[in-house]
Amino acid sequence: MSKEMSFWDHLDVLRRSLFRIAVVVVALMVVIFLNRSLVFDTLIFGPRTSGFILYRWMCGFGDWLNMPGFCPESFSIPIININMAAQFFTHISTSFWLGLVLGFPYIIWELWRFVAPALYPNERRAVRTAFAFSSFLFFTGVVAGYIFIFPLTIRFLGTYQVSEIVTNQISLDSYIGMFVTLILTMGLVFEMPVLAHVLSRIGVINRQLLRRYRRHAIVSVCILAAIITPSADAFTMFMVAVPLYILYEFSIWLCKKD
Asked: Per-residue confidence at 2, pLDDT binned at 50, 70, 90?
C-alpha cells in the first residue's frame, strides 16, 4: 500500500481483507458445524456437570489439603429447548462465534497488513509486537473463561433456588448466550496489556500514570468482575478479579517509563 493510494484504493484493500477474513471464518464455521457432538456434548455442555475438569481439580486439591468440603457436590444442570427451530439456529450461530474465536489470529494478521503501511517505523515496531502477542493473550483469556469462570458461574446460577418449590429449567438460548458472552469477554479483557503497550509506545500513557491510579484500578477491576460474572457468588467474582488485576500489573510492566 503506497502513500499515493486514494481513499477508494484504501477502501478496496480493506474490502479484500474483510473478504478473506469472512472466507476463513466461514470455513472454520463449517468445520465446527460438522463436528456437532464434539463441540456441544464434550466442550460446551461439559461444564454443566460435576464431572468437568475444574471440579475434578477441586476435588483433588481438597483431598490433598484433607478438606473434603472443597469438592463440589455431584450435580447436573438440565438444558431444555422450548422453540421449534432454536436448536438448529443455535447450532449455526454458535458455530459462527466459535469460528470467529478460532480465526482470531488470522483476523489480527489481516488487520496488521492493513494498518502497517500507514504507521511510522517506531509505531510499526510497537504495533507489530502487540499484534503478535495479542493472539496468545486472547486465547489465554478464552481458556481461563472456559475452565474457571463459566463453570463456576453456571453452577451457581443453575443450582441456585429461592425455594425448593421452584425448579430450575435452563433454556438452551440462555446457556449458550452466557457461554459465548463470558468466553468472548474474557478473551477481549485479556487484551489489556496489548492495549497498554500500544498506548505507551505512542505516548498516551506511561508506567508512572498507571502506578498512580493503581487504587482506582483495583476498584475498577472489582466492578468489571461483577459485570462479567452476573452471579453474586463472591468466590466466582474473586476468581475473575484476581487475573484481571494481574493483567493490570503486567500492563504496568509493559509500559515504558516517562
From this structure: very low
Residue 2 counted as domain residue: no
Domain that holds residue 118: 7-254
β-bridge pairing 170-171 and 79-80: parallel
* DSSP single-letter state for residue 76: B
pLDDT of residue 257: 64
On whether residue 105 sits in a domain, the answer given is: yes
151, part of any domain:
yes
Let me know how long the chain is: 258
Give me the number of domains the chain comprises. 1
pTM assigned to the model: 0.82
Say which range, 25-34, 149-158, 175-184, has the weakest mean pLDDT: 149-158
Q: How far is CA 88 from CA 45, 53, 105, 152, in A?
A: 16, 28, 28, 27
Buried b (16+ CB within 10 A) or exposed e, 58-68: beeeeeeeeee
Q: Does 15 map to a domain?
A: yes
Is-contact 77 157, C-beta < 8 A? Answer: no
